[in-house]
Amino acid sequence: MKLTAIGTAGSFPGPYSAASCYLIETDEASPTRIVLDLGSGALSPLQRAVDTDSLSAIVLSHLHPDHCMDVTGLYVKHCYDPKFFNGNVSDTGTIRTRTSIYAPPGAQERLSRAYYTDPGKSPIADEGDHADLSHAFEFFDIDHGTSHQIGSLKVESFLVDHPVEAYALRITDANGSVITYSGDSDECDNLVEAARGADIFLCEAAFQEDRDTARGIHLTGKRAGRVAQAADVKSLVLTHIPSWTDCSIVRGEAAREYRGPIELAKPETSWTV
Length: 273
Known about the structure:
By secondary structure, the chain is an alpha/beta fold. Helices cover 21% and strands 24% of the residues.
């Protein structure tokens, strides 16, 4: 199982990275390819890493724009490719197999609203596209404790502490290797359980100790390290660090709590388990 960082910036696209997006691929004759989150700006680098027509599924940890908004761009790519689009804006023609999206409840409605624009005074308003994204995607709800089999990968979701419904994701391959992605979360018991014994714990660390005192939103490096140590993970990869947060500070905070190897996620970096 291979993990590739596509977008690692926290909260919005930074000067050197798109927002949250990660690709997981299996090494099989017919590989399983899952995208974890597809945040603002991430569709561009994702296309450099993989043929998006070959994706097995997209899994969204939550519905903040920096984790899901480029689904709307993928919808356009999926529907209006000349191989499929017949030239009529009210009919997307022959539709390829829909891509599965696993996400918190309300994702289809949320993303459809983001994509749809009222035609207003358009002289051809009756010919407009009123798509609800179902042309391109099939949506499935995730919930705390649910498990979905996507190809050869099992994806389990754990409700975590964040101002909106958000999930940590635990991905297990056929050999029992585990990658856990925190999504956005503060320190909580469910995050520890999601990461328990993971080979790679891909964990956000957007906040700094003593500077960011709000709780229930994001982890600091210290709290990310504390979760990693409690979960006995084999390695910790820190991500979702916004441009105003010093990476070396949060890494140092984590290192004082977690005794295993620590890396900072950077776009196009890959790890294999």
